[in-house]
Amino acid sequence: MRVLFLSQIVPYPPHGGVLQRGYNLVRELGRRAEVHLLAFNHPDVLPTEETVEESRRELSRWCARVEYFSLWAKASKVHRLAALAASAGSATPFSFVAHRSNALQRRIDQLLEEARFDVVHVDTIALSQFVTNGIGTAKVLTHHNIESMLMDRRAQMESGFAARTFLRREAAKLMGVERALAPTFDVNIVVSPSDRSALEALAPRATTAVVPNGVNTDYFTPDPDAETPALIYGGGMNMFANRDAVMHFVDDIWPLVQAQRPDVTFYAVGQDPPPQLKAAAERDPRIKVTGFVSDIREYIRKAAVYVVPLRVGGGTRLKVLDAMAMGKAMVSTSIGCEGIDVRDGENLVIADDARAFADSTIALLGDRSRRLALGRAARSLVERQYSWPVIGDQLLDAYRLAEARTQSR
Fold first, then answer.
1. Termini Cα distance of the chain
2. Which of 49, 124, 382, 391 could bridge across to 214 with cysteines, CB 3.0–4.6 Å?
């Protein structure tokens, strides 16, 4: 099988979120198919020529072709403002404007004319603009989240009028393109059954397949003897959902935990920590703000409980799967573990208000046997359902479904 894989970001290094999913799917595909990768290069992820070349070497291990394209909206702050202005004055979502590229369009057209591909994989809805209806090749579209739903949730959390208004408009625009474009693809890949239900309600004629997020169960392994009286939350704080989660924890949950367990340390791990988090750490030395770390496992190992106080989100969180693979007891909001086949009290503990979240965390801190039982059940679940080889097989099944639908037309 020959696959033309269009990615909104170079899927390397595999540190969190879309990078982790993209890299592991490309790797699994490369073991099963001939992959031709075209990707936008984000200069904040690969800032130097050396990092760009390192990514090219690594991805070339799995891909027959690796080509990068410039993302114009990230060239400077002026370019980003121009993209925002262009989107604000039109019915086009910001993500579509930001990903416009004549160079990528020409290259896609050239490759589709010169070579036969079995499947074109479009790895986010903003890239659907590069694939026309009449290409004669099976097309799949990945929805890492239901973007309109995610944007609407963000709008609900915003206090500023201008930001809230912008996000609501973006949500409406995205809902329109999801409704219109999803049925034009042979298969729409979603990451959870709940996202499948949401997309099918929005676009009833769309064909869907669930290909969940996964975890490297050889890389993330349990080490229960390493734990200390510590809590951890991990996630890049360049993302609104993670910033909101960590500040919600520090402002609303952490004081309740500290009142009962003053011996506990909280690690906030992830790039671009906001100023208010740094200020909280200056006031309270038990809050440790690490910034970006190249290997989060050392911090997860030392934590007795992994906390996921997310209030905004969609899809599924790879950080949750990573911690589960390491056998960690976890307290999460319903949104934090959304889309993962977990059961409250069996694989983790679910708590949605600050008091219940704090009480559940305190209870686990004082009960090692309960922590170990939750951790074992979490590890068992990811081994059965969320290891990347299992996910790779599910992706190929989605491709075969798309091929069958194309051939039946």
1. 20
2. 391
Confirm whether 219 is domain-assigned.
no
Q: How far is CA 258 from CA 89, 102, 176, 284, 358, in A?
A: 48, 55, 46, 11, 9
Neighbouring-strand partners of residue 67 = 38
For residue 240, what is the domain's CATH number?
Answer: 3.40.50.2000
Q: Which pTM does this prediction carry?
A: 0.84
Q: Which residues contact 43 (CB under 8 A, 6 or more apart)?
A: 71, 74, 75
pLDDT over 80 (residue 191): yes
**Strand locations in 276-393 (E):** 287-291, 305-308, 329-332, 349-350
Q: Which strand ranges, in their side-by-side order, compose the sheet holding 208-210?
A: 65-70, 34-41, 2-7, 119-122, 138-143, 187-190, 208-210
From 27-41, 302-316, 365-379, the region with the lowest mean pLDDT: 302-316
pLDDT tens-digit readout, 16-50: 778 999 999 999 999 999 999 999 999 989 999 99
Burial of 392 (0-12, 13-18, 19+ CB in 10 A): buried
Burial classification of residue 241, based on how many CB atoms lie within 10 Å of its CB (0-12 exposed, 13-18 middle, 19 or more buried): buried
Q: For residue 339, tell me if it sits in a domain.
A: yes
